[in-house]
């Protein structure tokens, strides 16, 4: 059954192609003594390699909260070379950024935009199967063509994160990896704890120990406003009534961010995304599976609140979100700590990134009908009380003032771009995932 969790951020991706090991070279042996010592040396060498690489293949890396257990391979000189080359800054005053969740929807677009303007970028993604991993693979291929390498691994893997910081002294971290989805939290609650809490803490632990400490921009969510009814949603409104475990873990993230800022001087900026949509989007989002179901002649569930109340979302086009993310990185001040202590107070910010014009979900469907030239089979249903809220509406004046954030794409224009992408992507022999 498909569900309409219409409001979140991208999930994380990841699979891995093994690099050919650079450890063994052809050797020439001229003396019989050398021949005699060859095999013992090879044996010791193999032992050595197994010992030092074991953190990347130990059971620590298999995570029971994922639907597919998986270990990741990383390390080695060829791997480090790829990491360095991808992270190389090519423009003057460029930054070097670790982007987590880089094979996700927002992660892919942000990584590509950073790379385009000459920043150094390394992606990190676990390529989990929360939604069709082949879409994440396609995004990865797209990024590879622009010169962005995505490391396959989990944000909860501290050995991997430390290794990345050892290889590249990142100036910034763009943390977009997360378990997304509002309803899925009832099916798999531990994956939210794993990614959005344990993973975040692990990442911040590594960042606070890094020298120099990076500045961190990360994805919170408009869902933190929960049952708040005051509109438009402003950053200062109460966010202590989450309506889903997803929202609760994002709210927890904001508090965890406060702690790491307060104790360790990490510069932290949280971005509350409002229903991001566009090309290469997430198949679990309503606009995406509505498109698929309309084309397949399947009925689509359209929720309404009590007394036929309209369910509306502040749909925000991906290009506008990307501009907001880059502006957040560019205005982030340096972290102020080192050696586990802060030297002076560091920057701590939270911004709404929305579009300021909520649209009824039924209007979204009408636009899709026109673009697809197919009539939708609408199934009006009562909004269940298990995660989704009735409406979202962002007050973006703070982001406007501090980031120069100004969304310019309306829903009609954005959906047209999405539909064009969708039709071309899925007509190339690729099947939309169930
Ligand atoms: C995260 O990783 C640590 C080891 O780095 C492990 O002990 C812990 O169980 C992991 N947490 C989750 C929720 O998977
Ligand atoms: C929007 O937020 C700003 C603070 O950033 C506040 O001053 C303003 O009153 C809010 N506007 C509305 C309409 O709530």
Automatic annotation (TrEMBL):
Keywords: Isomerase, Membrane, NAD, Transmembrane, Transmembrane helix. Residues 97-334 form the NAD-dependent epimerase/dehydratase domain. The keyword Membrane applies. Belongs to the NAD(P)-dependent epimerase/dehydratase family. It is a multi-pass membrane protein. This is UDP-glucuronate 4-epimerase. It holds the Pfam family Epimerase. The chain crosses the membrane at residues 33-52. One of its GO terms (cellular component) is Golgi cisterna membrane. The keyword Aminoacyl-tRNA synthetase does not apply. It catalyses: UDP-alpha-D-glucuronate = UDP-alpha-D-galacturonate. GO terms for molecular function: UDP-glucuronate 4-epimerase activity. Gene3D superfamilies: NAD(P)-binding Rossmann-like Domain. Homodimer. It is found in: Golgi apparatus, Golgi stack membrane. Its EC number is 5.1.3.6. It comes from Quillaja saponaria (Soap bark tree).
């Amino acid at each position: 059954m498909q569900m309409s969790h219409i409001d979140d951020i991208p999930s994380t991706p990841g699979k891995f192609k093994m690099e050919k090991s650079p450890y063994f070279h052809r050797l020439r042996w001229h003396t019989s003594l050398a021949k005699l010592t060859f095999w013992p040396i090879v044996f010791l060498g193999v032992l050595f390699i197994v010992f030092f690489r074991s953190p990347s293949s130990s059971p620590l890396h298999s995570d029971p909260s994922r639907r597919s257990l998986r270990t990741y391979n990383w390390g080695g000189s060829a791997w480090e070379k790829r990491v360095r080359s991808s992270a190389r800054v090519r423009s003057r005053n460029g930054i070097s950024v670790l982007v987590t969740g880089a094979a996700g929807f927002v992660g892919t677009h942000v990584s590509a935009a950073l790379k385009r303007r000459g920043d150094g970028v390394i992606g990190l993604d676990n390529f989990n199967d929360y939604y069709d991993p082949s879409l994440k693979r396609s995004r990865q291929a797209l990024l590879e063509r622009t010169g962005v390498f995505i490391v396959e691994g989990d944000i909860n893997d501290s050995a991997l994160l430390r290794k990345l910081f050892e290889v590249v002294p990142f100036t910034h971290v763009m943390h977009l990896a997360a378990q997304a989805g509002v309803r899925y939290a009832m099916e798999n609650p531990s994956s939210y704890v794993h990614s959005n809490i344990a993973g975040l803490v692990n990442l911040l632990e590594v960042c606070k120990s890094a020298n120099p400490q990076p500045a961190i921009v990360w994805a919170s969510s408009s869902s933190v406003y929960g049952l708040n009814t005051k509109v438009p949603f402003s950053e200062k409104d109460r966010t202590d009534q989450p309506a889903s475990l997803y929202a609760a873990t994002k709210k927890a993230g904001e508090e965890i961010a406060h702690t790491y800022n307060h104790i360790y001087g990490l510069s932290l900026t949280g971005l509350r995304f409002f229903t991001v949509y566009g090309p290469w989007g997430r198949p679990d989002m309503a606009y995406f599976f509505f498109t698929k179901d309309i084309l397949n002649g399947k009925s689509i569930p359209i929720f309404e609140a009590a007394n036929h109340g309209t369910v509306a979302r502040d749909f925000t086009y991906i290009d506008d979100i990307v501009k907001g993310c880059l502006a957040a990185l560019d205005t982030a001040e340096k972290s102020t700590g080192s050696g586990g202590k802060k030297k002076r107070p560091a920057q701590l910010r939270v911004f709404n990134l929305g579009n300021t014009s909520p649209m009824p979900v039924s209007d979204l469907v009408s636009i899709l009908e026109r673009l697809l030239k197919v009539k939708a089979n609408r199934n009006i249903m009562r909004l269940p009380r298990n995660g989704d809220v009735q409406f979202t509406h962002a007050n973006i004046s703070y982001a406007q003032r501090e980031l120069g954030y100004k969304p310019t794409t309306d829903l009609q224009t954005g959906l047209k771009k999405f539909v064009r992408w969708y039709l071309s992507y899925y007509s190339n022999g690729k099947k939309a995932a169930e």
